[in-house]
Automatic annotation (TrEMBL):
Pfam families: DIL (PF01843), IQ (PF00612), Myosin_head (PF00063). GO terms for biological process: actin filament organization. Belongs to the TRAFAC class myosin-kinesin ATPase superfamily. Myosin family. The keyword NAD does not apply. Residues 618-640 are annotated as: Actin-binding. One of its GO terms (molecular function) is ATP binding. ATP binds at residues 158-165. This is Unconventional myosin-Vb-like. Residues 997-1267 form the Dilute domain. Keywords: Actin-binding, ATP-binding, Calmodulin-binding, Coiled coil, Motor protein, Myosin, Nucleotide-binding, Repeat. Residues 64-738 form the Myosin motor domain. It comes from Gouania willdenowi (Blunt-snouted clingfish).
Amino acid sequence: MCLLVPLHSCGSNSDAVWVSAQIIQDYKPGHKELLLQLCDRNEVRYPVSSSSDLPPLGNPDILEGENDLTALSFLHEPAVLHNLRVRFLDYSSIYTYCGIVLVAINPYEQLPIYGEEVIDAYSGQDMNDMEPHIFSVAENAYRTMGREERNQSIIISGESGSGKTVSAKFTMRFFAVVGGSAQQTSVEEKVLASNPIMESIGNAKTTRNDNSSRFGKYIEIGFGRKGDIIRANMRTYLLEKSRVVFQASAERNYHIFYQLCASRDLPEMRGLKLGENAPEHFRYTNQGGEMQIPGTDDMSDLELTRNSLTVLGRSSTCTMYIYLFRILSAVLHLGNVNIEADDRSLAIFSKLLGVEGSQMAHWLCHRRLTVGGEKLVKPMNGQQAVEARDALAKHIYGQLFTWTVHRLNSALRSQRGETRSFIGVLDIYGFETFECNSFEQFCINYANEKLQQQFNRHVFHLEQEEYVREELPWSRIEFSDNQECINLIEGQMGMFDLLDEECRMPKGSDENWARKLYDQHLSSKPHPHFRKPRLSNSAFIVLHFADTVQYECEGFLDKNRDTVFEELINILKASQLVSELFQQHGNMATVANGSVRSGKRATREHKLTVGFQFRQSLQMLMDTLNSTTPHYVRCIKPNDLKEPFIFDPKRTVQQLRACGVLETIRISAAGYPSRWTYEEFFSRYRVLLRGRQSPDNARGSCTHILPELIPDPDQYCFGKTKVFFRSGQVAFLERLRAEKLRVAAVIIQSHVRGWLCRIRYTRIQWAVVTLQRYSRGMLARRLARTLRYTKAALVIQKTYRMVSVRQLFLMIRQATITIQAFTRGALTRRRHREVRAVLLLQARVRGWMERRSYRRVRTTVVFMQCCVRRKAARKQLLKLKTEARSVEKYRQLNKGMEVKLMQLQIRADQQVIKSFHLNHIIILYVLWFSVDITLTYSGAKKNALKRTYCLVCCAPSDIRVDVACSLPPGLPAKVLFLCVRHADVSGDQARAQSLCAAAVTAMKTALKKYTKDVEMSALWLKNAWLLHDLLLKHSHKQVHYVPPLTADLTPVTRSLSDLCIQAYQQMLSITGTHLHSITVQALLESETIPGLSAGKLAVSRKRSGSDPRPMGGDAPTMASVLRELGALHAALTHQAVPQTLLEQAFHQLINMMCACALNSVLLRKDLCCWSRGLQIGYNVSLLEEWIRNRNLQAGGAVAPMEPLIQAAKLLQVGKKSDGDARAIVETCTALSSQQIVKILTLYTPHSDLDEKVSVNFIRTIQVLLKGRSDAQPAQILMDVRKEFPVTFPQQPSPTLSTEHLVIPDSLKISFLRRA
């Protein structure tokens, strides 16, 4: 059994308040001590005097590191503190839910959990599905605003140094991203730009925080009907103006003063006379002794402030920041003013503000009084003059602060539309208590009392709403209402009333106010929340909800009055530089402004005090918060050393009490903190049910079995959809379940062991029989082998003898045959030589006789031919002589020559036309340049030519999609290139350039028109790339084997290159947008494997605005993803896009999908289980198979899947032994160390066969991961928006001719083909 024990009782000197321990010896009533084993394996004895002294029980292992504190079975302070420590130190999780509250622990370290990929992961997701995060609260507020059309508020509180400002900054950044477009609009930029400005003039270094906000602010971000940011407005509360003139040791003034001093050498700063040793030179910046904050560059911070002013005030940016810097520098010089004549600092102050130095010097040392209707001027002593000087400095800074806020609000207004609703972000100071507490701490703690009251009532209201919704019988839950403490401060004759009354007295003092407090709240009617210190008459004690605080009365009246003499203000109003500060805001009652003191008492009495203004603004804030749906963020400071990931339990408990987290726990524990749906309860505790039970009747089974398990009916209650348990009952059920499983395991073990023994005996018996059988067989085989060897020897001898005799016989026979053959051959050759000589002689004689006969015949034939030819020639000669005397013969001869010349000319013309493709080029050329050439085409053909020209370069955006997609790949680019080449060959380079430019413009228009059509984007990608490739390869720089283009088309090729990238990115953006919306549900949530369900079994929690996705419907599946990818692949393949470009495109898309899926796994606890890992692995295998079937893996499309595949394997492998840890580290090489630890931390068992990953195993993994060289970046989430560079391949130059162009019949220009 797990216990939580205080370490001081165990003899430890550790600072931890509670530690986890296990009972190793049963406790019985009467025992004086418990034998415990701590988490470090040390055994201790815990003293117990009675049963009431037993330490509190710890939560079961299933709830170890639970991300919602209200889901714990035992809701007490040790359990809450232990759970926060485990999540913060062991899991490195800084966020934890506590019902509707997000507890944020400051890690004092930059964590990679706030990038745009994290915003994308949380955007659109339900709060219940994701791990706790500040973005989850912001997304919940954003979705609730859009769904309910109700204003929202995010209340961020905590003490100084707990991270309130950073949380507010990230919240506004989330709204700027989800409420803006892909590229931030002016309003979103201004919302983010206001943060550096307000930090520089409102934040300072304190002993607890290097960037402490010394004011409270409430920023309203207005949204339009489409969810985009329309405007923003900022309200501020209680600026700590006293810091301008005084800083305690180890503290600094506001950052802006040190930023100015660090930038004093800039040209525009030299006129401010900041000196060489600033800020040590100025009294207002050197009191704390801290001139520099480690790790901070004041000069770069000032540059950031100036850039922010540029975003906010584009028209007069330079004037605005010079105006600010002059006034701030004047305040610094005012602090160095000595109450003497001709002071140099006073002269610089007067020059910077444009006022008269003599008048300022006079009224800094004198005051005007009105006595009996007469005005008198009275000199002041040195102390009074210093106070007047400091009051003026504070007033100027306060007015400047108010003026800056007003200018920011003016810049944050937009005229884009009407605001539908808003989300307010409240960044306000938390409860403060110091050794010396003054007026500022009193107001801060009063504000926290009001906020705590609103928080308690809201939590109580939500708790009761849950019971009413489930129709539970409930009695009113009592919670601590701090209304009495609030009445003490703001009620009639309360502390503020008495303070204002004393401020109106002519000789009011802090001591008189303290006596009035004692008389009113101690003597006449003692107040339970007010006390008087024993050893002081100038202090009082208030019992706040968080702690008891003692306030020193000194300075209360002066800070409440916050007055400055009217004569000094009149001097400043006369200045053209600073008059705007006092005229524009002079009548506005804000907390930043104090009262202006004149000589008339009646006027002074009607001035508003700081306390009264603060109460008014705080009441306005409470009215605003009450009219909105609140969301709470409580920031916790884990240690005072500002060291990363060091957990101080004492400081943490103090802040948990102060910010109301423990009060939320107490309210939840007073009712039914543990809530399970009937299905979840049945799935978890079905082992406790008897007989066969059906999941369809989960409610009936739960109703039947619970009275038997928990006899006390007050410990549980049945609702409509859930069963509710008191604190500790879930742990009791877990113990019963563990006991039932233990008994079942023992029975199973006994049966298994018996079965194993029987199996062992059967195997031994079978082995003995087998050995005997093999031994007998071996002896029989040995005998048989001996007999076979004997018989074989006889056979071998017989065969050998036969072979020897046969070889001798064959040798003798072969020799005999050889001798006979040689003898017969010699005789035959001798007879042949004799016959051959006779034949040769006969052949020679016969040949001579034949040749002599041939020569005689040939001589006779030639003689006869000569006679015949001589006779024919004589006849022809006589005929020619007769024709030569006739004139008609000459005419006929000339006519035949003319016909032949005309035929030759026509044949030459056709050859020229064929060489230059004039049948196409002249037509397009005439249509483009409007050259007046007479054509013989009919009107129908001319219209068809116009359509052809529109297809090529005039208006591709007007072509029908089906017609355009039916074209052969690259047809427009090829025809256009032929036109350009003809114009270039004709010597008209200007017209060739104009034609190309017009084509580029037309393609851009087409891409702009079809921004959501993948097929058209692929079409113009192909044509733009092909035209770019043709022009580039035929340019004079690269062509070596054909005549190059003489026109300079370099600008056109650059434009075409940019156009290719634009078309490529547009095509991926269309498909990527569709895939991004379905990737998580298809890859991670769809159950592709039938029968393998991974339903959620975590303890349910109900929060304000929770809107889970509806179940059922047409949920995306892997078929949907493959369908989208297939559509893109078909479009690119149809256009004959090169394979390398296809591989690059799918590499980009697969990387986006896998990064999005892995981010969801790293942020969603319900996805981290064994069954879901199996589903994810199967879905990814389908995607990988699809990629490989299309030969796209060569371009790296499979590589982005590796982290997701390894994450799925990590969810399936064993996670217990050291061997499992080493296997995980060796296998998961594509996952970073942070990602591995995160998945193991989120791993949630969803069946009885699985169990949660132990903390010791995670520590073992972390130790092993430190030893490996991690090539992965040190980040948790993947970059979804990562873009890979694209390279367009160069293809061999195609041979273009009209014969090779295939023109579809749908264009009706078939006559352009050459016959």
